[in-house]
Automatic annotation (TrEMBL):
PANTHER family: HIGH-AFFINITY BRANCHED-CHAIN AMINO ACID TRANSPORT ATP-BINDING PROTEIN LIVF (PTHR43820:SF4). This is ABC transporter ATP-binding protein. Belongs to the ABC transporter superfamily. Keywords: Amino-acid transport, ATP-binding, Nucleotide-binding, Transport.
Length: 255
């Protein structure tokens, strides 16, 4: 039985992780609550994608623990973690280019036992991303970048996750497509799905998140409500190119 108040909660505690002799994460702790979007921001190479790989079971940590729904998942396989309710949308989308859009989407449901529910979930995914309905028979390689990102997110949703790990969804996409993707993430949050979002556009990430963590050189250096982080002088200077006093001035690029 899940302990009271822990349903849908991810906790990472004191994680060290890396590759070979290179340590990437140092004593990293964070949590994602039910129905919450949490932004994980920081410079390139800070370890953000590595942290998502640890949570999804693709990389074993050297120290620390990950729990979800009150149970430890640190040593579980990626397949087991998907079945428990966590889906990972990796950077670069990672679709199978020669499979059709429909086949890519259905791969997201491979671990499910409730096969009778899959068709209904496919309809819900296509309602979120109507353009994909017109592309179902096409090979994924023929999709635009935005459509590929929609397909990657749709594939993850076919697993019926309670927690989505999304890595750099806006990479290479135009503002209109990014806004559409963020609106879908907002819809998912309102439906009770939790999201841990890694996003290069810090302004976009924090504008659509409830809370945020700053990861720098493998360590969490700051955490707060998203609104507070948007107004934090160090965040504005390092990631938005603004000082607090610049907000609202002519020529500022506040987002």
């Amino acid at each position: 039985m899940t302990p009271a108040g822990l349903e849908g909660v991810l906790r990472a505690e004191h994680l060290d992780a890396g590759y070979g002799s290179v340590q990437v994460l140092w004593d990293v702790s964070l949590e994602v609550r039910r129905g919450e979007v949490v932004a994980l921001i920081g410079p390139n190479g800070a370890g953000k994608s590595t942290l998502l790989r640890v949570v999804s079971g693709l990389l074993r940590p050297r120290r620390g623990a990950v729990t979800f729904d009150g149970r430890e998942i640190t040593r579980r396989t990626p397949e087991e973690i998907v079945r428990l309710g966590i889906a990972h949308v990796p950077q670069g989308r990672r679709l199978f280019p020669d499979l059709t859009v429909a086949e890519n989407l259905m791969l997201g449901a491979y671990a499910r036992a409730d096969r009778a529910q899959v068709a209904g979930d496919l309809d819900r995914v296509l309602a979120l991303f109507p353009v994909l309905r017109e592309r179902l028979a096409l090979p994924a390689i023929q999709l635009s970048g935005g459509e590929q990102q929609m397909a990657a997110l749709g594939r993850a949703l076919m697993a019926r996750p309670r927690l989505l790990l999304i890595d750099e969804p806006s990479l290479g996409l135009g503002p209109i497509v990014v806004q559409a993707l963020m609106e879908v993430i907002g819809d998912l949050r309102r439906g009770g799905t939790s999201v841990l979002l890694v996003e290069q556009d810090v302004g976009v990430a924090l504008a659509h998140a409830d809370r945020g963590y700053v990861l720098e050189t493998g360590r969490i250096t700051l955490t707060d409500r998203a609104e507070a982080l948007l107004g934090h002088a160090a965040i504005r200077a390092a990631y938005l190119g603004l000082a607090v006093g610049d907000v609202g001035r002519p020529g500022s690029q506040d987002r």
